[in-house]
Specification:
Blueprint: E1 12-16, E2 28-33, E3 42-49, H1 53-68, H2 75-92, H3 102-126
Antiparallel strand pairs: 1-2, 2-3
Length: about 130
């Protein structure tokens, strides 16, 4: 079953907060929704101090993951299904001498592709794209 999209819409980006309107400085990393070009950014989360390299990397990773999942109704399920397709394809592409059963690997790949397609169709129906 697909999850309803009850999260802040993409795209997300991050930046270091600058001097605010009352003269206070901050070097905190913040995540925003929207695009910088149109000036319509909405604050989503604070990620800590910019001088901490781990927090900077975490903010980059969070933003990259959120933006990469754009359009996925249930990102965890769809990513799991994509991984299963990749693993089944890898097993199917092994030389015949290394495969336990070419037919089983073929069927496994077909099932993984079918499951991914079903998730995608369900997500598109939930998102009104079908």
């Amino acid at each position: 079953m697909s999850k309803q999209n009850n999260w802040t819409p993409e795209p997300w980006h991050f930046r270091t907060r600058e001097m605010d309107g009352i003269g206070c400085y901050s070097n905190d990393i913040r995540i925003y929704q929207g695009t910088r070009e149109n000036g319509l950014s909405e604050w989503v989360a604070d990620c800590g101090c910019e001088t901490d390299p781990i927090r900077h990397k975490n903010a980059r990773r969070i933003v990259a993951c959120v933006n990469a999942c754009t359009g996925l109704a249930d990102p965890a399920a769809e990513i799991k299904a994509m991984r299963e397709v990749c693993e089944a394809a890898r097993a199917f592409m092994l030389p015949p001498s290394l495969q336990v059963s070419i037919v089983d690997n073929r069927d496994r790949l077909r099932l993984a592709i079918h499951n991914l397609a079903a998730l995608k169709a369900e997500g598109e129906a939930t998102n009104g794209k079908a």
